[in-house]
Every structure is written in structure tokens, then in C-alpha cells.
TrEMBL record:
<dbReference type="GO" id="GO:0003735">
    <property type="term" value="F:structural constituent of ribosome"/>
</dbReference>
<comment type="similarity">
    <text>Belongs to the universal ribosomal protein uL4 family.</text>
</comment>
<dbReference type="InterPro" id="IPR023574">
    <property type="entry name" value="Ribosomal_uL4_dom_sf"/>
</dbReference>
<dbReference type="Pfam" id="PF00573">
    <property type="entry name" value="Ribosomal_L4"/>
</dbReference>
<protein>
    <submittedName>
        <fullName>Bifunctional Ribosomal protein L4 domain superfamily/Ribosomal protein L4-L1e/Ribosomal protein L4</fullName>
    </submittedName>
</protein>
<dbReference type="InterPro" id="IPR002136">
    <property type="entry name" value="Ribosomal_uL4"/>
</dbReference>
<dbReference type="InterPro" id="IPR045240">
    <property type="entry name" value="Ribosomal_uL4_euk/arch"/>
</dbReference>
<dbReference type="GO" id="GO:1990904">
    <property type="term" value="C:ribonucleoprotein complex"/>
</dbReference>
<keyword id="KW-0687">Ribonucleoprotein</keyword>
<dbReference type="GO" id="GO:0006412">
    <property type="term" value="P:translation"/>
</dbReference>
<keyword id="KW-0689">Ribosomal protein</keyword>
<dbReference type="GO" id="GO:0005840">
    <property type="term" value="C:ribosome"/>
</dbReference>
Amino acid sequence: MVMRPVVSVFSATEEKRVGSTVMPRVFGSSLRNDLVKYVHMNMSKNRRQAYAVSKNSGYQTSAASWGTGRALSRVPRVHGGGTHRAGQAAYANFCRAGGMFAPTRVWRRWHRRINLKERRQAIAAALASTAVVPLVMARGHRIEGATEIPLVVEDSIETLTKTKDAVKLLLNLGLGPELERVAKPRAKAGRGKGRKGSKRHPIGPLIIMRASAIEGRRAFRNIPGVQVAAVERLNLLKLAPAGTLGRLCVFSKSAFEALDEHTKPSTSSMLASANVTALVNSSNVQLALKAPIKGTPKATIKRHCNKRILKFVRHHLKKQQKDSKKPSATPALKKASKAFYKNVMAALAPAPVEDVVAEE
């Protein structure tokens, strides 16, 4: 991925540019959307809580089969009388209040292990996507007022203590429309209103700073839709919510410069030039290559194959050997054969009509 060499650094109190810094190498990582979705899915599974039905559910009753001869099924039926429950089918999974087929167990494999290199590559891809404006806008963030992406602010952002100062900083960066968007929660559809909150809160910008910036974390954490993360322990669930690339991020300068140290970006491509044809045809490469092998390699018979194929191959080889041993036709032999053919054809030719009349 192509990236620019430097990034602007903005003031934490005023709406102006105060310097620049070098773009970290992690922003040149490839955008592996498939890898990000895979790692995000498995990381989300690690937060699941075990659930299962009781091992006695459906079997807490006394029932036995009535046997045959009653024109009824042989399913177990509840003992007793004087109630509607007596005589009803029980235990089977097709019965009302019966047991469950393959009941859920708490020892199910709920969690997933994720390869370390896959996690690192996924985080590198998620960070690289935060610098791509089309991806950030496609995710729904309102960045039309932002001067530059990614947004880097001087280190005084980590010493903010008031939430009103944090909101003012975001407004100075041109994120006013974004704060308005995340401040309006939407009602969930259907029965989701009765499950863990009735409204859906949009996800806004992610503030990334050092882990030691405790005051700055407190200043931003009460703003609706805004999340805070430490550069020393970046989480893919925050960098790519729902496995979607393009999270809007605001970095402190020190955290931005420490990205390569803590993210361990994936190795870049070994090819400095994408023109592979020119590389292969260059004189240096051609001198190191071996000369092409002339002729076709000898065909070998594969063992343990079909007997019919072996029989055909052997017959074909014998025929080739016989044909190679036959003497080649010499010019004298050809001449004699042509003369013999002419004599035979002359003898078989019909006699002229005049000769037949003369004989009579």
C-alpha cells in the first residue's frame, strides 16, 4: 500500500498545525480484509459465556410405555390419574415437555485460539485502513470537516482533565458532524429492544494514546461514541468493530511514533519493483540462470497403475522396436516393386475387341 512520508501534527488547544512527524511503517501494510474478519470473529468468541440446559430437564416425571395392543404409540406415558397430565407422552424429544435431542453442554468448545502472527497482521491491516479516507467514509464516519487523515495531535492531549476540553479538541479537528452522529442512538428492531438495552449507540472516533495517560483517558471516556485505547495494547475489536476496516482514529504524537515498536508490522514484500518481467529478463538474472534443457524427458512407467494401461504401453513399445528393426526401402527395391506392379496390372487388363474377333 502506498503511503505518504510525513503526517501533520495539530494543536490540542487551537485549530492549527504545529508540526509534522514521520508516517510509521505499519501504515504500509496490506489491507487483509479476510484476515481481519477471521481474527475478529475468533476474538469475539472468546467473550462468550457457557450456557446449557439442565441434564434432568424433560425427564423429571414418572412415565413408562403402555406396550402394544392399545392402538397407541409405544412412547412412554405419564403414570397416575385425575389430571390431564396422566397418560400424556413424555421423555421423547417430539413430546411436549419432553427431553431435548443433543442437549447443549457447558463443555462445548466456546473459545478459539488465534495464531500470534495472524493477530499481528490483522492489527497492522486495521491500522493501515485508518489512513485510507474512502474506507473511513465508507464505514460511516463524518470526516468532511477533517483536515487530514490520520489525525495526530500533540502530546498535551494526554494531560487533558476536563471533558469539555476534550470535546473542544475534537471540534477543532473538524469532527463536529461526527460527534452529532454518534450522539443520536437508534432504537433496536424487534425483540432486540428487550435484550441488553433498547437502543443502538453508533461507534465514533477512537482516541489512541499512551497507557500512562490516565488523565486523558478520563477526559474522553464520557463522550458518547468515543472510545480510548492504549498504543501498548491495541485491540482489534476496537480498531475494526464488526470486522470492518476504516475506524476513525485520533493519535497522540508519542503514541503515533510508537506504533511500529508495539505493533510489530508484518514483513513487507521482498520485491522493490512490481515489474517482474523486467527483472527476469535483466542481464544479472539471466547470467545466474541455467541453460534450458533441450529434448523431452524419458517417459517412465508409473507403478501400481491399471493393468490395461501397462499392457497397452508395453505393446506400443514392442511395436516401436519392431518398426525400428525393419530395413529401409532402397531405390532399387522401389523400382522392382513398381515394375512388378505394372506387369500384374497389364496381365489383368481386358484384351482389345479386335484381338477377340481375330481369334474367333
